[in-house]
Amino acid sequence: MSNKLEKARKIINEVDAQMAELFIKRMRAAELVYEHKKELGLPILDQAREESVIEKNAALIEDSVLKEYYIDYLKHTMSLSRAYQYRMQSGLKVAYSGVEGAFAHIAAGRIFPDGNRVSYGDFKAAYDSVVKGECDVAVLPIENSYAGEVGQTMDLIFSGGLFINGIYELDIHQNLLGVPGATIEDIKKVASHPQALNQCHDYIKMRGFTAEETSNTALAAKTVAEAGDKSLGAIASVETAEIYGLKVIEANINKSGENTTRFAVLSKVKASSSALSSTVLMFTVKHEAGSLANAIGIIGKYGYNMTALRSRPMKKHSWQYYFYVEIDGTTDSENGVKMIEELNKVCDRLKVAGTFAPHTEI
Predict the structure, then answer these.
(1) Torsion over CA of 116, 120, 123 and 125, rounded to 10 degrees?
(2) pTM for the model
């Protein structure tokens, strides 16, 4: 054996031993990262962070050819780290409202692919499960592009102690589902949630179907599957069809192609991450002329752009409202601290409800 080969193998063996130790050290750090994400209800994949790490570390390699291989090495290492974290995520309990196949169930699965999804009968029960410690996070809808805000969720966030640590956008595609063997000519009656029926009103009218309301789309699919009647159809998602053994007779029958629901991830601890670049503020203003304008002016004064402003009636106080605001930026900067201080002077109640990455699609 040549001296060159012996020398090379010795170096490789030494490096491999060091890399084994460093690999273990890195994966232990990944465990800590996962514990942090679990506590805050954050998804495992943080694309912006990974790209930043790759760019920073690739700059350490001067050889342009080796740099390409090093980038591949980093990507593979990160993939292993994610896989390890997903394995640990199998113990994460994710609360949602509805039954298996409901859009909240689908959203929870896409945000936390290996989490244990736990069904609750309504939004409050799902929310309270996190408060009580039964679940780690809750995934609840806050807005639909077709039907508007989900008031009950917003009320829970305003009055409760959980924080928003992410807002995710799920495109809603409604489909006509039927039992195996059914055709479009067989369908006489369709069942679904009132909102889904409304979204597909033109299609239902065109086909001459009779419509029947159910409490949610997944329950409609379950009912059709159990009935085994070719004349019955359900309007629901493709995922729901797979769960209940139905076939998609016609796809994307929504009246409007623009139908997106935004889901918030709620947990006990407020997240602080560079990936979460927008903030939710909720407040009430004093009963004085111009108080809302003053609050909005303060937000603008410190360079924050409002991307959403909504009002909600307060249940315990007639004709009184609280306001929900989304702004670009976070409040942990010097300007943010000053803005909060000034807002407290014109607001009766002010809550920094959480942070999120805008326009995150799932």
Answers:
(1) -100
(2) 0.73
Least confident of 41-45, 120-124, 227-231, 338-342: 41-45
- SS3 state of residue 243: helix
Q: What is the mean pLDDT of residues 109-126?
A: 90
101-120 exposure pattern, b = at least 16 Cβ within 10 A, e = fewer: bbbbbbbbbbbbeebebbbb
pLDDT at 264 over 70: yes
Give the chain's end-to-end CA distance (angstroms, integer).
56
Q: Chain-centre distance of CA 194, in angstroms?
A: 24
Spatial separation of the C-alpha atoms in residues 134 and 322, rounded to whole Å: 29
Residue for token pair 């807005």:
143
Residue 89 pLDDT > 80: no
* pLDDT score of 162: 95
Determine the Cα–Cα distance for residues 318 and 321; give it in Å rounded to an integer: 8
Burial of 340 (0-12, 13-18, 19+ CB in 10 A): middle
Tell me the angle at which helices 123-131 and 151-159 cross, rounded to the nearest 10 degrees: 30
> pLDDT confidence of 317, banded at 50, 70, 90?
low
Q: How far apart are CA 328 and CA 361, in angstroms?
A: 18
Tell me the pLDDT tens digit for each residue of 155-207: 999 999 999 999 999 988 899 999 999 999 999 999 998 888 888 988 999 99
* Tokens (6 digits) for 242: 């797979």
- The span from the CA of 234 to the CA of 174, in Å, is 10
Parallel, antiparallel, or unpaired: how do β-strands 360-361 and 163-171 relate? parallel
d(CA 115, CA 94): 6
Q: How many whole angstroms separate alpha carbon 3 and alpha carbon 6?
A: 5
pLDDT of residue 2: 72
Pairing of strands 278-285, 321-328: antiparallel
- How much is the pLDDT for 101? 85
CA gap 172, 107 in Å, rounded: 10
In 10 A of CB 349, how many CB atoms?
12
> What is the distance of C-alpha 226 from the center of its chain?
31
Alpha helix positions (H), the chain? 3-40, 47-58, 64-88, 103-111, 123-131, 151-159, 194-199, 201-207, 217-227, 238-244, 291-301, 334-346
